[in-house]
Q: What sequence folds into this?
C-alpha cells in the first residue's frame, strides 16, 4: 500500500515516543517532556502511515530556532540559512521499504521554499554505514564532525544545498503564494518552550 506522510496528531505522541526509544543506538532516547516540546514548537513534525499504522516520524526546525542541541548549534555557528532535521525514525519492520525516502522528499519540498540548505547529522560510533549511504544517495555531503559534549558521541555533520531556493527567494521572498501544496509551518515557533534535547537520525 502507499505511504501517507502527514502532520502528527496529539494523540499519537505516545506511539511516536515508543518508536523513538525502540530505534536503537542511532537515535538517542526521548522522554515525554522533550517530545511534547517538539510537538508544541517544531515547525515540521510529520509521521508516515502505511497499512493503517505509524511507520515512522521526522522532526525538523529552521535556523532561527533557539533549539538547545549541540549539533544544531554547530550548524548555526557556521551556516546562516538552513532547515535542520533533528531526527528521523523509521520502524524497524519498515526499513528499506521507501519510508525514509518519502520523508526526505516531503521534507525537501517544504524546506526548499524557505531555506538554502538542509542539515542533519549521523552518529559515527557503532557503525552507521547504511544511514550514511542513504544520505549520500539523497545528496548530502559531510561538512565536518562534532562530538556531543553530553553524550560523548561523534557525529558526521551533513549538508545538502537546495538548488531551487535562490530563485524562489528572489521571486517571492517571504510572500509565498497561498496554494494548496505550499504547506505553511505547523506552529509559530516559541523558542522559550524548547527544553534541552539530544538528536540523531535513524533510518
A:
Amino acid at each position: 500500500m502507499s505511504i501517507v506522510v502527514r502532520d502528527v496528531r496529539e494523540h499519537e505522541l505516545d506511539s511516536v515516543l515508543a518508536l523513538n526509544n525502540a530505534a536503537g543506538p542511532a537515535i538517542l532516547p526521548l522522554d515525554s517532556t522533550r517530545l511534547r516540546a517538539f510537538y508544541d514548537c517544531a515547525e515540521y513534525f510529520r509521521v508516515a502511515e502505511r497499512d493503517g499504522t505509524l511507520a515512522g516520524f521526522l522532526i525538523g526546525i529552521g535556523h532561527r530556532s533557539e533549539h538547545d542541541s549541540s549539533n544544531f548549534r554547530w550548524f548555526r555557528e557556521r551556516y546562516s540559512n538552513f532547515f535542520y532535521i533533528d531526527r528521523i525514525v523509521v520502524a524497524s519492520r519498515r526499513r528499506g521499504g521507501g519510508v525514509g525516502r518519502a520523508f526526505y522528499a516531503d521534507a525537501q519540498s517544504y524546506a526548499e521554499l524557505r531555506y538554502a540548505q538542509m542539515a542533519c547529522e549521523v552518529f559515527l560510533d557503532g557503525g552507521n554505514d547504511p544511514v550514511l549511504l542513504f544520505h549520500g544517495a539523497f545528496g548530502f555531503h559531510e561538512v565536518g564532525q562534532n562530538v556531543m559534549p553530553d553524550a560523548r558521541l561523534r557525529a558526521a555533520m551533513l549538508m545538502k544545498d537546495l538548488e531551487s531556493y535562490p530563485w524562489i527567494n528572489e521571486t517571492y521572498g517571504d510572500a509565498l503564494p497561498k496554494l494548496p501544496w505550499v504547506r505553511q509551518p505547523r506552529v509559530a515557533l516559541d523558542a522559550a518552550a524548547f527544553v534541552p534535547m539530544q538528536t540523531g537520525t535513524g533510518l
